[in-house]
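QA checklist item 7 of 12: single-chain prediction sanity check.
[x] sequence parsed
[x] length recorded as 135
[x] structure emitted
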Amino acid sequence: MTSEMQQGEWVNNLLKGTVGGSFVASARNAGLTSAEVSAVIKAMQWQMDFRKLKKGDEFAVLMSREMLDGKREQSQLLGVRLRSEGKDYYAIRAEDGKFYDRNGTGLAKGFLRFPTAKQFRISSNFNPRRTNPVT
């Protein structure tokens, strides 16, 4: 008994929306799945902080979705345009799978912009006369 993988048809979908409250809720209302919303946030994380989006900001997401028997099997993010406070931000997937802006500059950086889930306050000030705790 052999099992063959069925190939679906890949269809490109352009989903547009306006931020009403949170970006996640607005993107879900526009037709994106949770995994697709996560892919958008990951692609754009180097350019902006999604927590600072305001009501009325616009977004457009180009997704390639594999359809099999009328059901969505998998999807891939191809591009994002986000307009916030009159400025456009782009993330475009190249053939190498990495994201670039409109000028062809890579979006991935060496360090995370926000390395922790939430921001922490540094608890102590720097003092040059502090004694070394080891000595």
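[x] summary fact logged: The chain has a mean pLDDT of 83.
[ ] second reviewer sign-off
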